[in-house]
Amino acid sequence: MAILNLHRPLTKTALSTIRSALASSSVISVPNHVSSGDAAVLIPLTNVGNVPGILFQVRAKDLRSHSGEVSFPGGRADSTDSSLLDTALRETREELNIRPDCIEILGRLGPPEHNLRGDLTVYPWVGFVYPEPTTLHRSFVDDEPLPSCDLDIIQAGINAPEVDSVFHVQLSELVSPSRLRHSMFRGQRPYSAVNVSDIVRGTPFGLGVRTEALEDDTEIGTGKNEGDLEIWGLTGWYLNLLLRALKLEI
Predict the structure, then answer these.
(1) Structure pTM?
(2) Which residues are bridge partners to 57 per DSSP?
(3) Cβ atoms 214, 183 nearer than 8 A
(4) What is the pLDDT of residue 249?
(5) Which are the contacts of 113, defined by CB distance < 8 A and separation ≥ 6?
(6) Could you count the other beta carbons within 10 Å of the beta carbon of residue 113?
(7) Which of 91, 134, 158, 226 is most buried by a 10 A CB count?
(8) Over the stretch 68-116, which tens digit does the pLDDT of each residue have?
(9) Which DSSP symbol is given to 73?
């Protein structure tokens, strides 16, 4: 049974529920030191137009790897980071221009996964994004809707050499059967990819013929059918872990 109302804006009570769910989910410890073999991503929950959802980004088309694909903000740790959480927050600011003091960290997911090359261990955190730093420290009534972000403002601030666009997917859409494609993460673990072609491009999704067969997804891809854009691979897997922790099975 879902522990959140997918059609109501996130509130302080909802954030507390998410924090508790993450704390009770299966995770492993995070290293105390930052290594060049580690990376971190942020799963940014937020309200947009009083609708709860998650921010995703489309990677710039000129990048050498995973160009034009859907991902969470994040990347490899560097020597300036005091922790892997700092890595996730730094990368979020560099890519989406969202300041760390606009983000309330709710917890993390696990276990972390390696990238396909096997040279990075990727640690995911979950946070709620406020529209500005002052709202993070305001006192809200428990069930008062938390303020919404302006997606146009976020889009205007993205780092264009790294990010092509940013988009918001409603929680209810992330579990909509019409968007889901059953697949296998790394050829072993079942999960669902989510088609977001229409949200990103404003065009009908599912242009190709869908198959219900389990397939071997690799990384954060553009989709199994030409013309599709999906949340799948590592990004899709972490999204599935979050939705399972919140009992929003997909």
Answers:
(1) 0.90
(2) 71, 166
(3) yes
(4) 66
(5) 121, 122, 234, 237, 238
(6) 18
(7) 91
(8) 689 999 999 999 999 999 999 999 999 999 999 999 999 999 899 988 8
(9) S
